[in-house]
Amino acid sequence: QVHVVESGGGLVQPGGSLRLSCSTSGITFSMYTMGWYRQAPGKQRELVTSITSGRRTNYADSAKGRFTISRDNAKNTVTLQMNSLKPEDTAVYYCKAESASGLVTYWGQGTQVTVSS
Q1: Alpha-carbon distance 4 to 76, whole Å?
Q2: Residues near 83 by Cβ (< 8 Å), separated by ≥ 6?
Q3: What gap in Å lies between CA 100 and CA 54, rounded to an integer?
Q4: Strand partners, 61
Q5: What is the DSSP string of 55-92?
Q6: What residues contact residue 92 under an 8 Å CB cut-off, 6+ apart?
């Protein structure tokens, strides 16, 4: 059985930082592209950043320079370091595991990030 579990969300003031983690089990983690997505109220889910099995990264323009994705294949974990947070970063953040073929995807349940003073 596959599990994808996010953690680390919470309430932070503008300009602050948060570190999200996504732990997986039941997949060959090292072979999967891992991504962080977010969905704000009333908006569609959007890609924030992703990292391939070869550690190639991709960032949304809104995340460039502020967010960093990394993966630890030994721990089957992907991490999102978020700095200089803005109120518009408020959303539920989801972790996605995607197979190399793109045919198989697994989503976590999401973790809430709220940026507010």
Answers
A1: 10
A2: 17, 66, 67, 68
A3: 11
A4: none
A5: --EEE-TTTTTTEEEEEETTTTEEEEEE-S--GGG-EE
A6: 38, 39, 40, 110, 111, 112, 113
Show pLDDT as tens, one digit a residue, over the chain (117 residues). Answer: 999 999 999 999 999 999 999 999 999 999 999 999 999 999 999 999 999 999 999 999 999 999 999 999 999 999 999 999 999 999 999 999 999 998 999 999 999 999 999
- At position 74, the amino acid (one-letter code) is A
What is the SS3 assignment for 103?
A: coil
Reading the block at residue 8, the tokens are 């680390």
Tokens of 11: 């309430």
Whole-angstrom Cα distance, residue 44 to residue 64?
20
- CA-to-CA distance for 70 and 81, rounded, in angstroms? 8
4 and 56 Cβ atoms separated by less than 8 Å: no
DSSP one-letter code for 17? -
